[in-house]
Write a structure and sequence with these properties.
The structure holds two protein chains of two kinds. By secondary structure, chain A is of the alpha+beta class. Chain A has eight helices and six strands, in the order αββααααααββαββ. Chain A has a two-stranded antiparallel sheet. In chain A, strands 3-4 form a two-stranded antiparallel ribbon. A two-stranded antiparallel ribbon of chain A has the order 5-6. The N and C termini of chain A lie far apart (about 40 Å). Chain B contains eleven helices and eight strands. The chains are: A alpha+beta, B alpha+beta.
Amino acid sequence: MKEKEGYVDYPEQQMILYVEKDDGKYGPIQTGSYISANYMDDYVLKRRNLEMELRTQLADGMISPVKYYMVLEDLSLSELAARAGIRKSRVKKHLESKKFGGASVDELSRYANVFNVPVANLLQVILVSHQGKLESNLILENKAEKISVNHTTTTNPFVVLTTIEERF
Amino acid sequence: MIIQNFNHKMAAHCESGTITSLLNHGGLNITEPLVFGIASGIFFGYFHKMKSFAFPTFIVRNKPGQMRTNIEKRLGVKFQTYDFNNPAKGQQTLDQLLDRNIPTAAQVDFFYMDYVPSWERVHINVHFLAVIGREDNKYIISDAYFPKVVELDAASLEKGRFAGGNMSPKGFIFHLDKLPSDIDYNTAIIKGIKKACFYMLKIPIPFLGIRGMRMFARKVTEWPKFARDTEHLSHEIMKINILLEDQGTGGAGFRFMYATFLQQAADMVGKPGLKELSGELMKIGDGWREISLFSARIGKNRDLGPDKLKQLSEMIYDRADVEERFFKSLSQAIK
């Protein structure tokens, strides 16, 4: 690849690309991510649709919050079980809405730790009303809008402070 | 505190970049492509059904951790390594090393690195970075994927270091211990190339090397049956682009960086044939880049019917054919 073909204007995600320089030598250049520069809108669209679909299934009792986060975070059943340190057969039960209630607080805490969300978020979905639509924090973070939802951990492993802040 | 004379530098790949940074800090003037090539970093593996992965996937570099061990064996450098069962002990050891001004590499799950935008974060337990300081409850991180040094909460670093699952880091850290007084680059380069050729041509496992590439070509047409819906399939097909380009490869699934290694190595070992081969590999990389762009395009357009996946399959078969010829020539060139 020639150096001039390698440059992509996308300061939000920089990377190193190896290219052929004008003198014929190969070496690194710092450039932007091609796929993020050209296809970020498509990623956000798919992510939003997936979140909405899973949220509907969650609200309708078709899936459990564990399944909700497992799909969103692209984890397999085996991987989630290994990461949470919970038997696979038990995780499988917790994916079902009806059997989710059998999970202990300790197990919820283990799942929350893997998903990097507060334990409370396994019992609620926080959304922000934005231009007539309900959006998740991830979608808003990407769009750099004015409102952000932040979670701050405390020394109590089950308690997180959730703050809704205005960005300036 | 921050280790003042540590020179943060972006790199194509997290593991080869971190190793290069530690070696450079220790006084060894070596480039990332040389580290990558001597460590036999170039590779291919396809995983159609693996319990750890939610969807079929592929890799384009050797096993995580092998770059370090191969560099140790071939250059004669010594890294001191540590792993832990106890996170508190893991943090204490890291702090003690930082107190001694020792930049320390850590293996982490990338997902918990909250200096990365959340849309970019995925669960992958084999991300490497260098910890170069500590301020209150935050660590100062030199991550080869970032233009600047960043800060990370102690809690997030601990989560990343002690994530469970496949390739769990177990708090793994390492730092440079000793550099040899003299390095035989000639032997190191030849050994690195020989092993890479073995991985690509002769490794007797059907989903690895060139055979793995052909398996990928054959099986990619089956991907629709693993997808929840068209958007999921589109996402996974577009991830081909991310795995080849964005996820720390230096472009074209490491082919551009390995071409750079061969160009640099040609003069060092006095084998001009390697220079020609480096040019050939750059062109092969351009072909991989076409696959990246094609995947992104058909994914975006949701043009994912059997004809397009067959076209993608043929493009991958073609790469397997040209790479088989290339690695055979490379193998001959170093005899």
